[in-house]
Amino acid sequence: MLRELEERFNQALAVLLPPDLPRPAGPRVALASQPQFGDFQSNLALTLAKPLGRSPRAVAEALVQLLHLEDLCEAPEIAGPGFINLRLRPAAVARELAARFADPRLGVSPAAQPQRVIVDFSSPNIAKEMHVGHLRSTILGDALARLLSFLGHEVLRLNHVGDWGTQFGMLITHLQEAYPEALQTANVLALGDLTSFYKQAKARFDADPVFQEMARQAVVRLQAGDPVALQAWRLLCDQSRLAFQEIYSLLGITLTERGESFYNPYLAEVVADLQTAGLAVEDQGAICVFLDGFTNKDGRPQPLIIQKSDGGYNYATTDLAALRYRITQDGAQRLVYITDAGQASHFAQVFQVARRAGWVPEDVQLVHIPFGLVLGEDGKKFRTRSGDTVRLRDLLDEAIQRAKTDLTQRLVAEDRQESAEFIDHIAQVVGISAVKYADLSQNLTSNYVFSFDRMLALQGNTAPYMLYAYVRVQGISRKGQVDWQSLIPAFDLAEETELVLAKHLLQFPDVIQSVAQDLLPHRLCTYLFELSQKFNQFYDRCPVLGAEEPWRTSRLGLAHLTAQTLNLGLDLLGIPVVERM
Ligand code: ARG
Predict the structure, then answer these.
(1) What is the DSSP secondary-structure string of 558-580?
(2) 554 Cβ partners below 8 Å, 6+ apart?
(3) What atom of ligand 1 comes closest to residue 340's alpha carbon?
(4) Domain segments of the chain as ranges
(5) Atom of ligand 1 nearest to the CA of 347
(6) Cis omega (within 30 of 0) on the bond before 550?
(7) How far apart are CA 487 and CA 313, in angstroms?
(8) Which residue among 317, 341, 433, 480 is buried most deeply as judged by most CB within 10 Å?
């Protein structure tokens, strides 16, 4: 609808504007900011007043004379200084709704120019526990990747795991010392909890200079490709991978692992090329690039070190190599990185160096999505009571467990008998979805407080509320027993709540496009939440199954389309629906 209105405004503009005046930039029409202004609003007259040398109201009146909107809208209203307010006609809404009904994509057109997109997300570090920050990255990244694929983009979901670096020296040394048999017996690996393994290695490293020296040598051997060191390294990575995979399986998320080690062969070249380009210089033995716009304490340009004085490379070097590889080898046109806001300057620096080196063609977009922290209910960084990082496995298990308790109580209250299989399945879907939705429904830049009680509540902007709305709507359509394969309802939108719901349904494609454009999934959550509320208001006011024709079919059609929209919307967020709960 927006696009159609744009078109009509452009036609009017062509008549109104003298040919020598440039056409104003930006959209002609937008969704109305308040329902009392109608459905759409245009402030085009305000922009044109000056170039045309007329008052905004006079321009608005002239525009309205030239606009042909009779088939879509009621007579336009001019408000305030010269806003044009538009209200859709019920008949136009009904027509559009019928078109939507026949479309499995629910009106969302695929991108006109599909791009190759890389979403770099999750990306935990080997031999360390994945923390809530990685969980947030995983959930957000999956949702954005799903959405972009749905729009027809070719999406590569990359897990940039931290599987390389000096910490492997101490890990390998500790492995050889404490678990010598692990290197001989290929199959069994009883490293136990990797976090405590990491802690033990770190403790040894901090306490013992001999161990430190051994660790340093182990790094050198690893980087030189020594087979024993490599084998130990591989064992550690495999072990970690198993732990990560458990989380991904629970979340139903797939990723392609391409860790830091993958870029190892390209690091020397990155440094050499930046030196040849005159960007990288030697400073106190290290090789670095002096950054524009980043200054240190005494106001001098801050260096980005790309090779340390001992010859080692670091996080930034790997990201520079990865960025270049992704553009030249993967052919990516949009590179999206999802990490906590703490890494914002890291990415700003890496992007700057890559741009200055000329590695980023004009049509390639680099985006870092910096998200806020997950806090505990005390408002501080999320931790266990004893102050440790929360194990994600435990956290997800607890969400499922609590969902199960809630469900069991509800079943008793409703006097329902359900199989153990049903209960386990619903508890799992609700528990995991609650965690995902709590994360996705927040504006991603803000910190949010992790609360099981809030995310599992059946009321409010939560996953259980959304799943329940779907079940309810679906139940009504099911009872209506209409074979939609062969029938497209003629919509008859006489009641205000019907019209409000119908118009909201029509906004779905615009919401999806805006989420894809700005990469803000919470907008989709808000949309779905409002959709559920508008459906409930409609259902409170309008009898559906008991209504007479043509309203019965029309209202069943509204219910059906609401269910379809919830289903697709939730799917794009990585949340599966259930038929009963
Ligand atoms: N491994 C990093 C961490 O845990 C995140 C990596 C993000 N991706 C990247 N290309 N740097 O903080």
Answers:
(1) HHHHHHHHHHHHHHHTT----S-
(2) 489, 490, 491, 492, 493, 498
(3) 12
(4) 2-88, 116-161+260-374, 166-252
(5) 11
(6) yes
(7) 64
(8) 433
For tokens 């770099």, the residue is: 120
Nearest alpha carbon, ligand 1 atom 6: 123
Tokens 């919509």 -> residue: 491
Report which secondary-structure segment, H or E, holds 116.
Answer: strand 116-120
Residue 270 CA to residue 494 CA, distance in Å, equals: 66
* Ligand 1 centroid distance, CA of 124 (Å): 7
CATH topology assigned to domain 116-161+260-374: Rossmann fold (3.40.50)
Look at the block and give the residue holding tokens 């690893």. 222
Banded pLDDT at 490 (limits 50, 70, 90): very high
* Residue 125 in contact with ligand 1 by CB distance below 6 A: yes
Token pair listed for 76: 């336009």
46-78 residue pLDDT tens: 999 998 999 999 999 999 999 999 999 999 999
Contact 554/489 with Cβ under 8 angstroms? yes
C-alpha 504 – ligand 1 centre gap (Å) = 39
Query: CATH homologous superfamily for 2-88?
Result: Arginyl tRNA synthetase N-terminal domain (3.30.1360.70)
- β pairing state of 365-371 and 334-340: parallel
Q: Could you tell me if the CB of 339 is within 6 A of ligand 1?
A: yes
Tokens of 458: 């059946």
Global pTM? Answer: 0.93
Q: Which helix (H) or strand (E) holds 286?
A: strand 286-295
Percent of the chain at pLDDT > 70 equals: 99
Core vs surface per residue 455-469: b (16+ CB within 10 A) or e:
bbbeeebbbbbbbbb
Query: If you search the block for the tokens 């969400």, which residue do you land on?
Result: 399
Any atom of ligand 1 within 6 Å of the Cβ of 371: no
